[in-house]
Amino acid sequence: MNLALTTIEQGLIYSVLAMGVYFTYKILDIADLSVEGSFPFGALLFAKLVSSGVDPIIGTILTFIIGTLTGLLTSALFISLRIKALLAGILTMTMLYSINLRLNGKPNISLTDQKLIFDYLNTGNKYIDKLIILIIIVAISKFLIDKFLKTEAGYLLVATGDNESLVRSLGESSNKYKIMGLMISNGLVALSGALLAQTNKFADITMGVSIIVAALASIIIGDTIFRHRKLRGTTRAIIGAIIYRIIGTIALKIGLSPQDLRLINGLIVVVFIAYNNFYSAKFAGRFRRNTNA
Predict the structure, then answer these.
(1) Confidence (pLDDT) at 289
(2) What's the pLDDT tens digit per position in 90-105?
(3) pTM, to two decimals
């Protein structure tokens, strides 16, 4: 039971990450690798805040707000300096490595003696405490994202990813919405890093390694399984993240080594992308045959 609760707990944390990457990968169609720097940035920043006496709730909120600045840095490189998005993300990730080291003066920090956001609830079962708090955070995040995407700015953000020319024809700057999307994305990724640090009770500079794969796997799994369901992208990302963590747990339970997890993560993404590609090709072929008939 504890293993099942831990798996769902990890899935909820990764769902915040997946909702963040959803902005860049699905909405803006931007390959943003800066998340591999902003994820540990969120963890180490939170550690710095609570160790300085900041309340964990305020520290968690501040981590999201300050985390958006990493997206601002990427957008400055991408838009202002006209560096390609992929390279801009890599540069941001590289620079954040040094910033992350400077935050606490060391690559990892323990949170064992610090008050954390989960300490505000005491049901007698620490797994249930974490689960309830995480469900609340994920629900609030999803609600706010969905609300935002229904606003005028949200519609224009989606339109920027679909058709920049349309946005410009309306007298709006598509770059403004790219900046907005990158900032929200990295803010959520940093928040996810802070939540993982509180769950594990430590923050480490290597926490972001291959984290983009986990985010993409969550999004792709959700989109593939619920292809024909009328679910919001955020809902698919949340469910996909939980399923992704369940797959990882099953892999460990059947005897695979933890050092094989990255290989498994990569294979999960490959399998689901390949399935989507073959499905799309088959659907397109069927459509052409029906049209010709």
Answers:
(1) 52
(2) 999 999 999 999 998 8
(3) 0.91
Query: Is 265's pLDDT higher than 90?
Result: no
Give the separation between CA 84 and CA 244, rounded to whole angstroms. 30
Alpha-carbon gap, residue 155 to 139, rounded angstroms: 21
Write out pLDDT tens, residues 46-71.
999 999 999 999 999 999 999 999 99
pLDDT (mean) for 168-184: 93
Backbone angles phi, psi at 109, to 5 degrees: -145, 140
**Mean pLDDT of all residues in 197-204:** 93
Q: Which distant-in-sequence residues (6+ apart) come within 8 Å of 222 by Cβ? A: 18, 235, 236, 237, 238, 239, 240, 241, 243
Distance from C-alpha of 109 to C-alpha of 43, rounded to nearest angstrom: 10
Mean of pLDDT values over 140-163: 94
Amino acid identity of residue 42, one-letter, is: G
Structure tokens at 80: 């202002």
* DSSP secondary structure letters along the chain: -HHHHHHHHHHHHHHHHHHHHHIIIIIS----TTHHHHHHHHHHHHHHHHHTT--HHHHHHHHHHHHHHHHHHHHIIIIIS---HHHHHHHHHHHHHHHHHHHHSSSEEE-TTS--GGGG--SS-HHHHHHHHHHHHHHHHHHHHHHHHTSHHHHHHHHHHH-HHHHHHTT--HHHHHHHHHHHHHHHHHHHHHHHHHHHTEEEGGGGTTHHHHHHHHHHHHHHHTTTS---HHHHHHHHHHHHHHHHHHHHHTT--GGGHHHHHHHHHHHHHHHHHHHHHHHHHHHHHHHH-
What single string gives the DSSP state of each residue in 20-63?
HHHIIIIIS----TTHHHHHHHHHHHHHHHHHTT--HHHHHHHH
